[in-house]
Write a structure and sequence with these properties.
Blueprint (H helix, E strand, L loop, with lengths): L5 H12 L3 H23 L11 H12 L9 H27 L17 H20 L1 H12 L4 H8 L3 H21 L1
Length: 189
Amino acid sequence: MKEVSQETVTELLAAWSHGDPTALENLLPLIERELRQIAHRYMRRERPEHTLQTTALVNEAYLRLVDQTRTRWENRAHFFAVAAQIMRRILLNYARDRAAGKRGRGAPKIALDNIAVISDERAAELLALGEALESLEKLDPRKSRIVELRYFGGLTVNEIAEVLNLHPDTITREWGRANAFLRRELQTG
């Protein structure tokens, strides 16, 4: 498969942001592979004996991304940062719904029933990580965002620096501090 330049994706995102309906049609085939890679990063944390389908996660994220009509996409990294955030929220909602169902509450299911069987243990781990990230976000929203972009979105240090308009050394330093914070939170939680 021919590698698509970052500039091409950025140009199409800008055209889409400015209301060009054909830009989205041209963009989808170019971004689908990377959306699937982000989804795989999330899903590979599941039990190895399951064959996990990422299609439902990609489709749900895509639908939510298309609804981002007011977003002015800055570049490719910005787009995939938002995509990663959306996927994380979808999976957290799914895990919360599973936990709520176990406790007997009739929480409504989201449209991801066919995505994969998330084990109770993995749902609990995902919820614990979500809670730790929420704690970090209250203390330091920027560090929380860096974790989200790096861990969930798979963005490089340079891509995160570009999205957040920071120096890569700052990203590296804050990534290390955020990891230490999350390890403490998860060990004490």
